[in-house]
């Protein structure tokens, strides 16, 4: 499947991105490679594979640990903007 620039620009618009000419062409090629990889995966014979072999495996998660932070300035040093102990983030829903 050949992905054209129009399709790339449509997908970019859905993600609220904009690409210039060369950049859109680069993404079109990369997108084609990704789709080709999925086509290769679809052609693999899985008839003798048990798809439920990992169904009952328990997930290993780390415990949540509550930490008291003494230096709030150090905590927020990488935050773009904060107010009254909260990190302010830009609005993402229109």
What does this structure look like?
The structure is a single chain. This protein has 94 residues and is mainly α. It has a domain of 38 residues. The chain contains three helices and two strands. The protein has a two-stranded antiparallel ribbon with strand order 1-2. A hairpin with a 2-residue loop joins strand 1 and strand 2. Helix 1 packs across helix 2. The longest helix is centred in the middle third of the chain and has 22 residues. The chain is flat and about 55 Å long. The model has no long low-confidence stretch (mean pLDDT 86).
**With helices defined by DSSP (H or I, 4 residues minimum), what is the helix count?**
3
Mean pLDDT: 86
- For the terminal residues, how far apart are their CA atoms? 34 Å
The Rg value, from CA coordinates, equals 23 Å
Number of strands: 2
Largest sheet: 2 strands, antiparallel
**Structural class of the helices, strands and pairings?**
mainly alpha
Spatial shape: flat
Helix content: 25-40%
Strand order of the largest sheet: 1-2
Work out the strand percent: under 5%
Q: Would you list the SSEs in sequence order as H and E? A: HHHEE
> Which runs of at least 5 residues are low in confidence (pLDDT < 50)?
none
